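Worked Example 4.2. Consider the chain below.
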Amino acid sequence: MGAFNLDNIYQDPSAARLTLGAELFREAGGYAQLVEPVHTRMNGRFYSLGIFSERYNRAFLRRNDLGDDGALYESEGLRDGLGYLRPDAGNLATTRGMEKDNREFDPSFSDLRELINGISPSNANRNGYILDNVNIPVVVDVLAVYSLLKQYDRDTHNFYVYRDTDGNREWSLLPYDLDLIWDRLDEPLWGVNYFSGHPFEGSSQYPTWAGTHWNRLHDAFADSPILRQMVLRRLRTLMDQILQPPGTPHDQRILEARVDAMVAKVAPEAQTDRARWGLRS
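Applying the procedure from the previous section yields the following structure tokens:
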């Protein structure tokens, strides 16, 4: 691993959401970064509690046994003059707001345009295109875990799409930037609960923000009776396996045990970090 991200915990003072979110995606069968809280030092002294995260790059693709020359696109989105995400970019309706992260020898976005056209609501054979060209198990896993995590900040940015260009040529969905999962922020702007965890939040049926933001790939799965049922069945299974039934004794709870282990691991650094940097207001 040559390059990685090292962030502070300003956005997520729990220092846990990015790590736990990525773990759940991997456990469900999706592709996600390696993420861990780390003790950082500068000039021999404690600097901060940081968050190490793997980058989506060739090393990541190789670690996951994915073709390392496959096309990788990041949805960065676009923002308006007030800093709000625009609803017309980064949502796989066009190539706007999408950044190509590899295959410098091929600067065209032609493969991404084929995906966009294939999953467009205007494509009469949209369902057939997805069955032939999308890694359905991976996308189903990602959409189901989005719901478990109540991750709403992923319709017009904060995701990657990857194509196994030299292999089966299928597209996969990769989650990214999970610091807003599990009700971290109150978003009262539009009187809508964006942390509902609805399994098809971000589709045209359940758009986010002012009812204007939705993702074309999410929408295609929500619109298809076959794919919709796949997502719901997978979500039910993951709820039983990870969230577990009500009344499960605390000492048998999977998620709570992982949180307890993380608290024990980072508590000293978290207290030192808070003493030095304080908490966001």
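The longest strand covers residues 45-54. The chain has eight helices and seven strands. Compare this with Example 4.1 before moving on.
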